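## Example record

The block below lists the input lines for one assembly entry, exactly as stored, with component labels intact.
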Amino acid sequence: GAVVSQHPSWVICKSGTSVKIECRSLDFQATTMFWYRQFPKQSLMLMATSNEGSKATYEQGVEKDKFLINHASLTLSTLTVTSAHPEDSSFYICSAITPYSGNTIYFGEGSWLTVV
Amino acid sequence: GQQVMQIPQYQHVQEGEDFTTYCNSSTTLSNIQWYKQRPGGHPVFLIQLVKSGEVKKQKRLTFQFGEAKKNSSLHITATQTTDVGTYFCAGGGANAGKSTFGDGTTLTVKP
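Predicted structure tokens for the full assembly:
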């Protein structure tokens, strides 16, 4: 079946640095990918919708200059947390959809980011 | 916008008792997914339902998608201590890939 891979699974970075998280669709072309984050003891919140070849659409309250999303190919979307701060520490997860999957979406396994 | 409500927020059961969590959407869903998150862990995908009235089973877990595709439930038969965790539902709206997560139901099981 369709697989979405996220890398890295765990990352620790220093405050002020940038971190890139990759989301890959391994055996299908994902025209649209979605990025979510989860703060401790809270639910997952949609951050942005990533469309191949165009700018991402960000949800209200999500800083587009801080969370850079690039969807340069049909199998890869990246989320870069720029100038990371401890409050950015969270669980980030992506999902992907293809026009051929009907209403089925595929989630990656997520990435834990800890900013120290 | 689309809202997904999940109840109850917390559920404490004795081991061996059944457990059900309910998910209700303000709008018709194109799909619904269920996740389990153990304490200190990350959400793990359990299942996705797409068809109206769909019922799927995974061992002691039964998942249902309502006929109107606006509600869903997860039922666990004869809970075990390994079932503890928070169960999230996530519903896809008109844009099937854009999921809205419920706030989760946290299950504790007393041995």
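Residues 14 and 110 of chain B are 5 Å apart (CA to CA). Chain B touches chain A through 21 residues (CB under 8 Å).
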